[in-house]
## 1
Amino acid sequence: MNYFKKILRFAAPYRNYGFLNIFFNILYALFSALSFVALIPMLDVLFKESDHTYEKPVYTGIGGAKDYLQNYLNYQVTKVAGDDQMIALVLVIGLVIALFLLKNFFNYAAMYFITFLRNGVLRDIRNAMYKKITELPVSFYTEKRKGDVIARITSDVLEIQHSFLSILELIVREPLTILFTIIVMFGISTKLTLFVFIFIPISGMLISRIGKSLKRKSDKVQQEQGHFLSIIEETLGGLRVIKAFNAEKRFNEKFDDSTDRFFRFSNSLLNRQNLASPTSEFLGILVIGILLWFGGKMVLVDKSLDASSFIAYMGLAYNILTPAKSISKASYGVKKGNAAAERVLEILETENKIADAPNAIVKETFDEKISLEQINFGYEDELVLKDFSLDIPKGSTVALVGQSGSGKSTIANLVTRFYDVNNGAIKIDNTDIRDLTLNSLRGLMGIVTQDSILFNDTVANNIKLGKPDATMEEVIEAAKIANAYDFIMDLPNQFDTNIGDAGGKLSGGQKQRLSIARAVLKNPPIMILDEATSALDTESEKLVQTALENMMKNRTSIVIAHRLSTIQNADKIVVMQKGEIVEQGSHEELLAAKNMYRKLVEMQSFD
C-alpha cells in the first residue's frame, strides 16, 4: 500500500474529478440496490391473487421499515391502477426501468470524471519521470541500461494505470454497492443475510492465497522486458558493427533467450492471475446455491419469507458477486502494480548528487581564470586523476594531450560538472563551481564532443539548440564559421532538412561540423573542444581548424586532442599520463625538452 500512497499523490491536482466520481459512485451504488428492491412489487403483481388490495401502511419503527416501504409502494401502485393488473404491471416495470436507467447513468458519470483523473495522473507521472531522467547525472546512466529506463517510463507506467489507477474506479463504487446491497438484504431477511456471512470470509481467504506471489512474478516480467528493450536499443545503435562482424546470429540468440524468459515469466504470472476470476465466480455460485437451499426452506417450509422477497433477495445476492469479483481482481492488480510502481519510484526517488547548492550563485560573466586545485577523481574505485592542478587564464587556449585513458576527457566532464570531483576543487573566478547554479555554469560553456551528438530534427534546430531565439542570419554565420554552410545548401531543404535519427543522413564530418556550428552560435566565453576535429577529412579539418582558431581568439578554450597538429598554436600544452601532468609548456618549449610530448609528435610524423 506504500507504493499506492506515493503514486496517489499525483492525483492531488485532479481531486475535484475524484470528488465528482465519488458522488456519482454513491448514487450508482444506492440505485444498484434499489433497482432490485423494485422487483418485489412487480413480482407481487404477477404472482399474488388478483383481488388482493393494500391499505395505506402505518410506520411502526426501523424494525418494520422493510414491510412499510414494500406495502407503501404496493399501496401507491394499486391506488393508481385500481383493479387493473396490467396497468399495475406497466407502472412497476416503468419504475424498474427508470431505476436501472438512473443506475447506469450514474455509473457513466462516475467513469467519465475518473477518466480525467486517471489520464492526468498517467501524464504527470510520465512528465515527472522524463524530467527526472534529464536531471539525473551522467553517472546514473553508466549503471542503468537505457532499455530498462525506457521500459519504466512506458510499460511500467501503463501497468500503474491498469492496476493502481483502475482501483480508483472501484475503491468507492464496489464497496458501497456491497454495503447498500447488504443493508437492503438485512431489511429483507436478517437470518438469511447472517447465514451468507459465514461463507464470505472463507471465500476471501481462498482468493487471497492465489495472489500472494503475483508481485514477485510481475517484477520478473518487468525486469525481463527492460532487458530485451536494452538489447533492441543496443542493436539499433550498433547495427553497422553487428552486420560488419556477421554477429546477427549471436544477437538473435541473445534476444531469443530474453524473450523465452519473458514468455515463461508471463505465462506463470497470467495463469496465476487468470485463476482469480473462475475461483471467485465458482465460490460465488457456491454461496448462491447454498442460499437457494436455505432460503427455499424459509419460503416453502418455515413460511418466514414470501416468494417475491426471496427472488429479489437472490438478485441482490448475485448483485454482490460482480463487485466482490472486481475487488478480488483489484487486489491482484495492487500486487502486480506494486512491482511496476517500485520500478517507477526508484527513478523518481533517486537522489540527484549533481544538483544546485541551497544558495547557489548565478554567474553570468567569466572574468579571470579557471582553476583546478589538487583534484582527485575516479569513476569507480581506481583514480583517473590524482592531485591534478592547473590554471587556465581568461583568453588563453590550453590543450590537453596524452595517450588514451590518461584522463583528458575526464577534465571536460568535471569542468562542465557532469561529475563531481572526489577531492579538491574546480573554481571559476575563485568560486567553486559546486556553489554555482548548474544552469549558469553550463551557460558559460560551449562544448563540442568527440561523438557528434545530433537530434532527429532540422539542421537549423540542431544548430539553435543552445540559442533557440537565434535569427536565421546568426545560424547561417555560425554554419559558415564551422565550414558547414556549403554542404547544408546542397541538402534537399537546406537548413530545413531533417537529418534523421542521430543525424544518420549525414556523413561523420558533416555531423561534426554541425556540432561545431552549434557551439559557435551559443558564443560562450569558455569553449571545450573534445576531439572536435577527429571526424573530419584532411581538407575540412584545415578549414575548420582555421575557423576554430578565429573563434577562440579572446576566448578561453580547453582543447582535448589526439591530433597534435591541431594544437600547435595553443598558449599552453599539458601532457598527461595516468591522470597526472608529466610536462607542460608551449609547442616549441615541449619539443625542445625532448620528453614525452616530442615522442608523441614523432609518432604522428609531422614537423
## 2
Amino acid sequence: MFILKESNTVGKYRVSLFIKEGVYNSTYRVETEDGKSYFMKLYDSEMIPPKLKTEEGVLEIVGCRKINHENVVSYVDDGVYESGGKEYPYLITEFFHGRLLSEYLREGVSFGVETSKQIISGVLKGLEHIHSLEMNHNDITPRNIILDEIEKDKYIPRIIDLGHLCGYVGGAPPFPVRDLNLLYCSPEQFVGEFGSRGDVFAAAALLYTLITGKAPWEVEIDESLPYVQKKAIVREARKNPLDTDALLKAGADQSLVDLILCALEDVPRKRLNLQDFIAGISGEASFTPPEKEESEPKKETPEGGRAKKEESTVSVSFKKSSGGGGFADVAGMEALKEDLTRRVIWVLKDKEKAEKYRLLPPNGMVLYGPPGCGKTFFAQKFAEEAGFNFTMVNGSDLGSIYVHGTQGKIADLFKKARENTPAILCFDEFDAFVPSRGSSNADHKADEVNEFLSQLNNCAKDGLFVIGTTNRLDMIDPAVLRKGRMDLHVEIPAPDKETRRKIFDIHLKGRPLAADIDTDLLAEKTPNYASSDIAFIVNEAAMMAALADQDISQSHLLHSVESNPSSLVPVKSRPKIGF
C-alpha cells in the first residue's frame, strides 16, 4: 500500500500524521490551510476487492456520504489523488479530539456500570442510524469507537472506520475478514453471515468489556497463527459459560446481566434485535435469557457449513408505533394519505361499522418507487396513523444457514403476527423475500415464496395488514401481487415541487438560518430529487455553514444542490465521483 509522507498534499488537505495502514488503505490526520484537522482514508484502487467498488465509487465512501448522526463519523469530502500514474480515491471525515476506547482499556481505565451503559447507548443509536440506511457496520470493537469526554464520566461515543460497511451478507462477504477482531465477531460471522444481529452481538460484547475490563470469553490469540486456527480458539473458548460473576462484581444488577446474555446469544434468531437492546439499556424493557436447547451440538460439514436442521423460530417484537405524528409527518402526498385513510385505516379501526357492512380491509399493500423516496418512512407513518402493533422485517431477520430454515421462520413470523393482532407487518425490500419464481436466480427460493403465498391468504380476516416496500415491483412473484394477497399497489414517486419545498422546510427546521432562505427556489432547482437527496443537501449546507461559523444561507444550499445531482438520474448521465 502506498504511504503518504508528512507535508504531502492531497487536494486541499496537507498530511500532518500517518495513523495506520490497512489491507488496501491507509489512514492519516490532515489539515487545511486554516488549520482545521480531519481524518483521511486513502485507498489503493488496484488492491480494493471488486465487490467494494460501485459505479459511484468505493463502497465505504458511498455509504459514508449518506450517514448523518452524532454517534457516527461524519462525511466531509472525497476525491481522487493521482501519483505515479495511479489513482488513489480518498475519503475525508470529521476529526474528533477524543481518544480511542481501546486506549482507555489498555490503560486500565474503569468506566463503571452507568457510564458504560451511557457509552453503549450512544453506540446503539449510531448503529440504529446505520441500519436505517440498510447497512451494517460489521466491525464494532474498542478500536473503532472514539470517546469525547464532555465532562467527568460523561462521554459522546462515535463509531469510526466504516471499512466493513455493507448490507446483509449471506455467504462470502465483499470485504476482507482477516483484520476483524474475532473476540467481537458473532458466531454466524464465522460462517460468512453479516447482518444487523452481528452488530448487536458486538455491541453487547463491548458493553461487557467496558464493565469488566476484558472481552467476553477473552482468550490469548497468537497473531502468527493461521486465521482458521484463530477462529477455532475463539469457538473453543465460547463453549464455556460466560463469566457473569465478573459483571456482578463490577456492580451490574441481574437485569443488566440478563440483557447482555440475551444480546450475546450464539443463535441469531434468539438474540435481541437492536430496538430491543436499546429498550433494555434505557430500562424500558427487561429480558430473560432463553434456555439452552437440549439437543445435539451443531456439526460443521467439511465445507465449513452446519448441520442442515434447525428449529425454525424468528425473534421479532410487535409494538405500537409511538413518538411520531403519523401522516402529519409526511410532506405532501395528500391525495394518497386521504385515500389510504378512507380505504384502509378507518376499516381497520371501526370494527363495528365494518362488520355491519361486511367490509374487509385490503389484505396487504406494496409501496413501490425509486430508492430514497421515503417508502419505508411512509410505512412507519402509516403504522403510527393506524395505531396498531407494528414490526419491520429485514432480510437478516429471516435469513438462515439451514435448509428450509427460512421457510420455517416465515411461518413462525406470521404466527406471532396473528397472536398480536390488530397488527401491521412490514417487509423492507419485499422483492428479496418473494422474487418471481420464473427467474433463474430465484429457483432456490421457490419454497420460501410458496410459504409466503400460503401465509398471505386471509390476513385481513385475522386482523393483520401486510406492507411490502420495493424499488423493483417487476421482480416480485405475480402470485403475490394478485387480489386477495397484496391487493394495493401504491407508487411512492419522486416528490413533486410542493412536496420538495415541504421536505426542505422539515429538514431546515430548528437550524440556524439566514434571512435569505427561499425554499420555493430550492424546490424549483431540485426536479426529480429524492427526499433522501434533499436531506443530504441540507446537511451538507449545514456542515459548510458550521465550518465557517455562519448561519445556513441560500448560497450554502444552492452550492450543495449544484454539488449533488439527483440520485434518481441514471448513473451514466451523472458526473463521476472518485473514478
## 3
Amino acid sequence: MHQNLLALLLLLTATVAMVSLARRFQLPSILAYLTVGIAVGPHGFGFMQESSQVAAFAEFGVVFLMFSIGLEFSLPRLKAMRGLVFGFGGAQLLLTALGTGLVTGLGYGQDWRAGLAVGLAVAMSSTAIVAKLLSERFELHSRSGRQTMGVLLFQDLAVVPCLILLPALARPAGEMINALLVAMTEAAVVLGALIWAGQRLLRRVYDAVAARRSEELFVLATLWIVVGLAYATGAAGLSLALGAFVGGMLISETMYRHQVEADIRPFRDILLGLFFVTIGMMLDLRFVTAQFDKLLLALALLVTGKGLVVLAVALAARNSMDIALRTAAQLAQAGEFGLVLIGLAFHQQLIGNDVFQITLSAMLASMFVAPLLIERVARLSGQMAKGDWAHKALSIHQIVVAGFALDRHVIICGYGRTGRNIARFLADEGIGFLALDVDPHQVQAATPAGGRVVFGSADRPEVLKAAGLARASAVVIAYPDVHSAERAVRMVRRERADVPVIVRVADDSAIDKLKQAGATEVIPEVLEGSLMIAAETLAQLGVPVERAMTRVRAVRAERYASLRHHYAGDAGAGGSASPPS
C-alpha cells in the first residue's frame, strides 16, 4: 500500500513540476504529460510499471475527450463549413494516409495494413496544440486559421470510423472484409439506436435533474451518461469512445451543453493527462537512441511529407502561397488522436514494436517542434505577403478608390457590432468614415450614408496609406482581440504621430500596453457595462437617477483623460459625488 502511495506521490510531483514548466514556457500540457510518462515509466527511471488497470483507467481520458468533441459537434456549423471540412479535410487525410502507406510499404517493406494504420495515425494533427497557438496568436479567424480548424474538425470526425476500421484490419485476411462489414453494421445499428433513444431521453433526464437544483446531481448524471453510453458501445464490440461521442453530440443540441462541458472538463483533463502519461510510458528511450538516425528520418518524412500534402491541397484551393504555407505549418505535426490510433494499432498487433517505437517517437518529436515551426513559417509568410504587391494590387486599388473623396474622415478598423455602432453615430453627425475589415460578410454589410466599408487589414502600412491616413481626423480600432489592436496602433503611430487613436477592448487588462503602443484613449467595455449596471441598480433601489448618473460621471472623469473636464463639469453641476469604492 505504502509503495503504491509512494509511486502515486512521485507521479503527481513530476506532473505538477512538468505542467508548471510547460505553462511557464507557454507549451501545451500534453507535452508535459508525455515527458512525465517517459521519465517515470519502465523505460525511464522505472518508478511505475505499465499495467492493465492503469491503462483501462487512462482510456477514459479518451472517452471524455471524445465526449467533449461531441459537445462541440454542431450540424449547422458542419453544414456551413461542409466544403472546407469534407473537401480540404478529406483530401488532406486521404492523401497523407495513402502517401504514408506507400512509404511504409515500399521503403520499409511493411504489410499494407500496417502502412494504412501508420498512415491514418500520422494524418491526424494536434487540436490541443494548434488551437492553443492560433488562439494566442489571434489567428483563429484568419483564412489559414479557418482552414486549419476545418481540417481538424474533419480529423476529429474521422477518428470514429478509424476506431472501427483498425480492429477489423487486425483480423486474418479471409475474415477481414466480413469483420469490417459486421463492425460497420453493428456500429450503424448501435449508433442509430443510441441516437433514436438519446434524442427522446437525454433532454428529459436533464430537465428532471435540473429541476432538483443540485450541482452534485447534475455532475453525477453527466458522468452516468458518459460511462453508460461508453459501456453500451463497448458491450457491442465497438470503441468506448464512440458511445461518448454520440452522447456529446446529442447533448450539444440541448440548452445544457455549456454547463455539461464545464462540469466534465476537470475529469477530462485529468484522465486525458493520465492517458498521455501511459503513452509516454510505452516509449523506449534506449531503443530510440540506438536508432536515432531512423528517428530523424521518420521525423523529417512526417513533417515534410505532411506539410507538402497540405501545401498542395491549399494551393489547389486557390490560396496564396503565404496562406498555404501557414496552413501547412499548422497541420504538419502529429496529434492526440494519432497517438490513440498508433497505440490501438500496436495493441491489435498491426505493427511491430520497432515500427511502433520509431513512429511514436517521430510523432512526439513533431509535436514538440510544432510551436517553433508555426512561428518560423508565420514570419516567413508574413515577409512574403508584404512583398506580394501583385496579389494585393486590386484590394489596395479598391481602398484608394473608396477613400479618394474623403477628407478629415475617420478610419474604423473592424466593422463588427462596435464598428457599425460607431459608423451610425458618425453618419448622424455628417462625418465621413472608411471602415476596414477582413471578414467578407462584414464588408458586404449595409453601410450608413457618408461612409464606405472595404476589405483590408490595418496592420499593413500600404492599406492605411490607401485609406487616407494622412488626411484622417481620427482612427478607431474596434478589433475584438488585444494583439491585433496593438499591432494596428503601432502601425498607425509609425505612419502618423498626431492623429487621435481610440481603441476598444473587452476589459482593462491591456490598457497600459495599448497606451504604451500609442493609443490616445482605451475604452474597456467591461467598465462601461458595469457603470450602466451600477446606475440601473441604484435607480431600482430608489436612488435618484441624477445622483446615480453623477456617480457614473465621476468614475468616467477619473478614468478618461481626454474627457475629464467634461465629466468633472457635469459632476460639479449635478452635485458633489465621489467614485464608488
## 4
Amino acid sequence: MRNSTGAVLYVGKAKNLKKRLASYFNKNMDKRDNRLAHLVSHISHIDVTITASEKEALLLENAMIKSLLPKYNIIFKDDKFYPYLLFTEQDDFPRFIYHRGAKHLKGRYFGPYPSTLSVKIVLDLMQKIFQLRQCSDAFFKARSRPCLQYQLKRCSAPCVDLITKEQYNQNVQAAKQFLLGNQAATEIDSVKNIIAQMHQAAQNHEFELAANLRDKISHIRQIQEKQHIYVGSHSLDVIAVCIQDNQACVQVLSVRAGAILDSKSYFVSLSKKQLDNTEGEILQKFIAQHYLASEIKQGNITELIILTPIQDQDLIQALLQEKWERKTRIISEPRGIKKNWLIMAKTNAKEALIKKLSAATVYQTRLQALMEFLKLDNLAQFECVDVSHHGGEATVVSCVVFDQNGPLKSQYRLYTIEAGNGDDYGALKAALTRRFKKLKLNQSELAIRSYSDVLFIDGGKGQLSVGIEVLESLQIMGIKLVAIAKGPTRKPGLETLYIFDENSDKTSIKEAHLPPHSPALHLIQHIRDEAHRFAIQQQRKVLGKKRQQSTLEAIPGIGPKKRMAILTHFGGLQELMGASQEAIARVPGMGQCLAKILYDYLHQKS
C-alpha cells in the first residue's frame, strides 16, 4: 500500500487477497481504531506481487518490511552482526579472540554468540580455567618477562617459555572441547586431572603449584554452580511474549553449547487493532523478521526453538531448514524441563515489560511537567547542546535529541571545533550555525524531521545570547531557548534557568528556579547530563588519538612507515616507553643513531 508520493505505508500477504483488502474498506471503518483509519485515508494505490507459494510470500513480505520499514507494520529491529570466537589454530601458541564481521581472518570460528557480553563471559572462563593467551602477536613476540595476566593466574606465559608447547596444546584441546559443547565432560575430566595434579604437587612439596591447581578447581566448580540449568550440547532459543497496555515484549533466551548465555528483550508498540493480535501472531511476525532476515546469513543458527503455538509453524520450520541447510525443530507445546524454560522466558518477558512501562510512565510525568513549566501545548522534540574541551584542546560540541518517548540517538550529532582555544562562545556559535544552517538548506531532511520545539544550552546568559544571535541571523522562528546555569556549588537542584521566547521582549530574559524535587527539573538535568556524557565520550576518543599520534609525529626523522613499524613491533606506546635503546634499534628500519634519538626524546618528555 502506497501514498500519493509513492512511499510504502504497509506490506502484507494473504491467501485470499479480495477478503484481505475488503477488511480495510467497509462500512464499519469509523468504528475502527484511529491508526487503521489513518492508514486507509492515505492509501493512493496498491501494488500486488503474485508468488508461487506461501514460502515465497512469507520471505518476500519479510524482505520488504526489512528494507522499506513501512510505518504501519510491526517491526522488531535487530540489525547487528553476531559475534564469534576466533581460534588462531595456525599459530604455534594459538589464542582465542573476539571477532565480529566478515570472516576474512585465518582460523576456526566458534559461534555465533547472541551478544558481545556472552563472548566476554566465555573468554573470561577460558582465561581462568585454561590460561590461554589472548594478547596480540606483536605484544606476544616483544615480551621478555611475564605480563600482568600471568601474575593474575589468567595466562600460562608461553611467551617466555613458562609452559611447554605440549602442555599448552593440551589446554588448547580441552578448551576446544569446551566450546564444541562437551562442557559437562570437559568439566568432569578437567576436575579429575587437576585433582590428580594437585595431589602430586603436594606430595612433591610444590605447595604454590598445588594452591594454583586448587584455585582452578574452584573456578570450575563455580561455573557448575552458576549454570544450574544444564541443557546438554544443544543450541536452542526459548521465546515468549508478554502483552500489556499498548506494548508487547518478546523475550529470547539464547542457549549455545549447553549454556544459557544471553537473555534479550525486543519491544514493539501496538495500535488498538494490533492489540487484538494473539501471542502466536506476534511471535510469527517476530520469527520471520528475526531468523529469516537476509543480513543474518548463517546468523543465530539454532537446532531447536521453543515457544507458544504460532501460525504457519510447519511453513516457518521448513523455511528455516531450507535457509540454514540443517535440521531445525520448532516445539510449541513443550513438556518437562523444556516447559520450565518457557515459563522462565515468560517471567523475564513480563518483568522486562513492567520495567519498561514503569520507566515510560516516569518519563511521561516529567515531560508533562516540563510542558506545563514552559507553557507549551505540545512538545514533540527537544534538544540540548554542550561545549567541552580539555584545557582548550580537543574542543567538541555535542547535540542530543529527545522526543516524546525518550532519547533519539540516531539524531545525536557531534561538532569538532578546530582551533577552539577554550573559547566556549565561539565554539557554541560555530556549532549552532553549522547545525541550523544545514537543517535550513537541506530540504530533504526537513521533510523528515522538523526543528525542535525547545533548544537547551548548557550555560548561562552569555551562551543563551549566542543561541539567540544564531537563530536570528538564520531567520529561524518557533524555537524556545533555555540556558541551564549550574548553581554556586554546582550541586544538582540549584540550577538557574534563563528562558527566551521569541514572542517576548527581546531585551528581557526570564530567570526561573525549579525546586529540587520538580519532575520538570529532573528531565532538564537528564538531557543536560546526556549531552555532557556524549561530549566527554567523544572528546576522549579525539584526545586519545591526538596524543598517541603526536608523541611520535613530533620526532624528527621518523615518518609514517617507521611509526607503524615501531608500534607494531612493541604493541603500543606503553611498551615502547619501557624499551631500551638496544631493543628500539632492533625494529626493522631503525638503526642505532635513530634509536638513540627516539630513546632520548621519549625519556626527556616523560
